[in-house]
Every structure is written in C-alpha cells, then in structure tokens.
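Reopening this ticket.

The earlier resolution said the output was attached, but the attachment link was broken on my side. Pasting everything inline this time so it's all in one place.
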Amino acid sequence: MSPLRMCVFLIMLTCLAGCGGPRATLGLPVASNAAEPAAIVPIYVATTRMRSDNLSLPYSAGRSPTLNFAKFDIGIPKTHVPGHVEKTGRVPDPARHFTAVTYQQIKDRERFIAALNAALAQRAPENQEIFIFVHGYNNNFADSIFRNAQITYDYNIKSVSLHYAWPSGGAIPLYVFDRDSALVARRGLAETLEIAARTKARRIVLVGHSMGAYVVTEALRDLAITGRRWVLDRLGGVVLAAPDIDVDVFQTQVEDMGQIPRPFTIIVSRRDRALGISRRLAGGHPRVGSGSDIAMLQAKEIAVIDASDLDGGRHNVFASSQTMIDVVNNNELMRSVLADDQIPASQTMLADGTSVIEGAASLVIFLPARIIGGVASAVVAR
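Inline output:
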C-alpha cells in the first residue's frame, strides 16, 4: 500500500472510530483524598480480554481463551452531561471524570452466578433483570465499561448491569484485528448468556453496539446451532444499535437462529458516516445499521428505529442523544416497542404502510410485519 493510500485509509478509520477523545483509564487505585462522585453504578463484567497487572487497565487487548469475571463500581462525576462519557487519558478526577471506585475479581462462573443472584435479590421484583451491553470497535476496557455505566445511569436502568468486554485493540488502525476478535469473542458471549440464563433473573436484555452487534448475532447463532435453544428462550429482548454487519451475513445468521428472540429491535441511521466508511472498506456491501433494507428486517419480525434525523444520526446516537434518552425514559410508546413488543392501537399512527409510528418528531419506528397486521386490523375495527 502506497504512503498516500495508507494516509487515506487511516483518515477513514479515524472517522470510523467507536469512541473519540482521549483513551480512558480507570483511575485505580483511587487516592484517599479523591473527591466523591455524584453517583456509583455497579457493573458486573464477563470478559475474554487477558488480565493485566496494570490497575489503570486491568484487562488488555490480548485474547483470553477463557472468561474472566469481575465487579466494578463506576463513579459518575458531578459535572456529568447526559449522553457523554467524561474521561481523560491521565489520572481521572472523580469530580470531573468517570472513575472506577472499586474492582473485585470473581474467581469462576459459579461464584459469578451467585454474585448476580445476590444483586438481583436486592432489587424490587419488577427490576430483577440483567442488562447486558456489548461494546463496539476501537474501545479499550475503560472506554467500554464507562460507556456501559453511562447508559445505565442516563437511561435510569434499574436492572443488574453486566458488561461483556471483548478484546478490541483499542486503536484506530486495528479495524481488521477487531473484526477477527469479534469472531473469537462470540463463544465467550454465548457462555456469558448461558451464565445469565442460569441466574434467577426474570428477564435478560441484550444490547450490542456497532461491531459489538456482530458479536451478539454470532453468539446467538452459536447458541442456536449448538442446541442451546433454552438460552435464547430466556432472552427478553435484543437491541442492535448501529450494527456493523453485512446485510447478507445478517440474513444467514438469522436463518441459522431459527426463531429469533423477541422483541428484537435494530437502531439504524442513513446518516451514520462510520457505517458508510465501513461499507466502502467492505467493497460496497451495505451494513445493516445503515437502514438500507428495512423491509427485509420487518419481514424477519424485527422492529426498526430510524434515527437518521435524530441529532445528526451519528454512530453513537443511541447512547449520546439527549432526545433519545428523554424519549425512552418518558414516552410509554417507546417503552412498549423496546420492552414489551406490544403497541396499543390508540397510540399508533399508520402512515404509508411501512412507516408506522412517530415516537418523536425526528424518530420513526418501523414495526415487524406481524404487528403491522394486528395494528391495521385494530384501526379498521374502530
């Protein structure tokens, strides 16, 4: 590759980066005179990253053949702005930056299940759920766990938060390395889902962002083809945000899954520049998260949230948009799509037969085919 082509390639990857700004560090150990954070978010971790002796990043980009388990308490700074992850490449200040307050390794899966069950027991019955987040490309461990804590805090998630950290290289030029790591990581996520399914959780919700969505679909496929259908049946919802997955690959994954978990929701944006660059790197093959074939997704019983006109439709809009946070937190219609998969006919607006609901002025929801039929019947009956 010529120097000019290499420069162009690196510029494209910079635009594709899953997180911007300084590379985060956890801030462990915390100084005794450190400021108090505004809030603490407990995050349980299952990871196929290799353990490290560096407390600032206790899990590296190395690929571990077995899962490692831990619990972190993540401090939310007093200056936090919803949708943002305030971080620094130096020693974080708990008053201004996300910081790891505590870190506890958990020895094995049985102790991990016991820890999850203990956390579930501390919650009200309606909140005895596990929320699993899978990060995207170009994240080190601190980047990804801070994003998980930000989503948990800003979306007011009362569930037990479980972070699946796969071995992203955490560097812009390592896109191919990350793509390979995503494939290696699918078995670890499948095992993590099996662990969550063995707990006393009433519901398990799985969210994957960008390349992390590829880890999610590969793990779901792995569970289906290895006869662990019961794990899929324990899932109470799957959300793929800006999935960096080839459309043809996704269709074969869904076919291998058989019956997909429900509800199954995908957040897309036609203005996602990162996925546009990913498409170019892939020789022009469209990505699922670009919303190029919404009708196909509907036919496969998948709900689609089109965020193209929401705060610029950027790659991280699901986590960084104040509008999205407000709508999901306060709008019962959005909650019904993301949580219950049931749309009250009285709250439904039929448009052109495909664009069914406007949850906000700049947000459009495309419902699965089976719900469109039910809603249309209800409207005709009235």
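Reporter confirms the inline version is readable. Residues 3-241 form one domain. Residues 1-19, 331-335, 340-359, 371-382 have pLDDT under 50 and may be disordered.
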